[in-house]
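Following up on my earlier message about zinc ion. Here are the inputs again, as you asked, copied directly from the submission form:
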Amino acid sequence: MGGNRAVAYMGPGKVEIQEIDYPDLVLRDGPGVNPLNVGRKCHHGVILKVVTTNICGSDQHMVRGRTTAPEGLILGHEITGEVIECGRDVEFMKVGDLVSVPFNIACGRCRACKERDTHICLNVNPDRPGSAYGYVDMGGWVGGQSEYVMVPYADFQLLKFPDKDQAMAKIHDLTMLSDIFPTGFHGAYSAGVGPGRSVYIAGAGPVGLAAAHSAQLLGASVVIVGDLIQERLDQAKSFGCETINLRDHDDVGEQIEQILGTPEVDCAVDAVGFEASAHGANKGEAPATVLNSIMQLTRAGGKLGIPGLYVTGDPGGVDEDAKEGTLKIRLGLGWAKAHTFVTGQTPVMRYHRELMNSILSGRAQIAKAVNATVISLDEAPTGYQQFDKGASKKFVIDPHGMLK
Ligand SMILES: NC(=O)c1ccc[n+]([C@@H]2O[C@H](COP(=O)([O-])OP(=O)(O)OC[C@H]3O[C@@H](n4cnc5c(N)ncnc54)[C@H](O)[C@@H]3O)[C@@H](O)[C@H]2O)c1
Ligand SMILES: [Zn+2]
Ligand SMILES: [Zn+2]
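Thanks, got it. Here's what our run produced:
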């Protein structure tokens, strides 16, 4: 073996394929690696041959230059792979297992992990609770948009697919278990979606579409999706959602009233985050738009699921406040309506096993909902460009050509 190829962030708007070291069971120094993590031994880890690894809106925040990600950072936190080497302390995973990797890195040993809060593990990132592969300020764990990757704490973290042939037949769906299916589900679930409830989902990117499909699985009566990109709204419509084009209509309440007969919904999900556009044509960026509008639109006592990402530092922020993640949010309104806000990374492990079973039984059709589109590793830079332009596709990188 010896070689490895990976997608590297090389400055705003630029990603390229680079030759990097073949991984071993230690976290070595490199771009973005926290000094306190350098040399960290991972006898509890495995080496995976990457079967699929997806491009995410979260990667785009970095690639657009909207974070402090350093050049040379190897990207990729949505990883599905085959175990090809096990560390000394791995007991239950075996070479040959086909597994989904939760994008959060979690030790399984700290207080947060013991409480199933694997999105805020206390032991994997010296800077703050919570970590992920290939991500800025997340400890420096090398990303998985590559041929091979090291995954620590393997026994605790990995979700093994029960049957390899069955899994390869459903791999376009199963690849969504590392992040966006659990994330969309978490958004809908934490917004209180249940039988007969109405839900508004801001954003028709892959996370918004995954939230919409999840809301259907949870029994919502009406799922309304808003975005400014018609192609993405058409995708939402293709599996039964109502849609609102926010470029043409800046009053979302009025549009919701036309659909439901009342300007309020029971539940709302923010699947947009801090790069939100103001409603209306060419009004530019307004980072608090979605948070303020979902407080307006959600009934008193409702819950707001907020998987959309908000940052503590944004070099491209619209003003000095936005540059440090301070947004003009009308919290008084949310308080008056006794809203619940659920934010943060998704605790993937709370959901991925059950969602896998929904996929394997044929109940969940997540690949279809998000328009999974397979590309090679060399096509990744083009995939990033198309995704940035708003293509209604969830790009799935197939680094070894195993899906052909
Ligand atoms: N919490 C988590 O663990 C987690 C996991 C994955 C992704 N995310 C975050 O979820 C968000 C969505 O991810 P994605 O991959 O779908 O990204 P994306 O960029 O493809 O989708 C965002 C969509 O929001 C639309 N949009 C912009 N302003 C809007 C507005 N005011 N109202 C409605 N829609 C608007 C955009 O046109 C775009 O289609 C990102 O912020 C991403 O970082 C969070
Ligand atoms: Zn992701
Ligand atoms: Zn932990």
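One observation from looking it over: The CA atoms of residues 195 and 219 lie 4 Å apart. Hope that helps, and feel free to reply on this thread.
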